[in-house]
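Blinded run. Sample ID left blank on purpose so nobody reads anything into the name before looking at the predicted structure. Input follows.
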Amino acid sequence: MTDQDRVIDIACGPGKHSLMLASNFLKKGGVLVSCDFSKEMVKKLAHNYTGTDADYMHVEGNKFVSELETDFTELDETKTKLKHTCDLEAVVESQKPFRKLAYGCQANNEMMPFADGTFGAYIASLSLMLVNNPKNQIKEAYRILKNNSVATFTVWGRREQCVMFTVMD
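Blinded prediction complete.
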């Protein structure tokens, strides 16, 4: 990866994984976008980045910003497009200068608010089996990735064979 990479962490939850990615793998000049469908998870993400024991924020030049006002999961009146899109380049420009930038927002895995070809890497840990239509999530992943980029997906398994879903039901 280059020093200007954009990485997206899908369904980040409270951000423990995102914080590890930003702290240890994001290169100088890189941007990590951590998104989750739940506004509560984005709030927890923000707390985990900015809390007193968050080492990430103690490194000079590291920044974290979250968007809690805009719900990037809302659909327009036609129910076929998002009501809001995210201008990530404007977010990045507004935060310069930085060493590393982490950005948190609320977004839907199946309909992302980012422009085509925005990211150099896509990480989806334990989310593909939770969406309404996994094909939509995969399609969106490749839409927002640059050519020759990397996407990773991890899953628990099929819903009917997963103990976790049995317990939840």
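Unblinding after everyone has recorded impressions. The beta strands are 6-10, 31-36, 62-72, 100-107, 119-125, 145-154.
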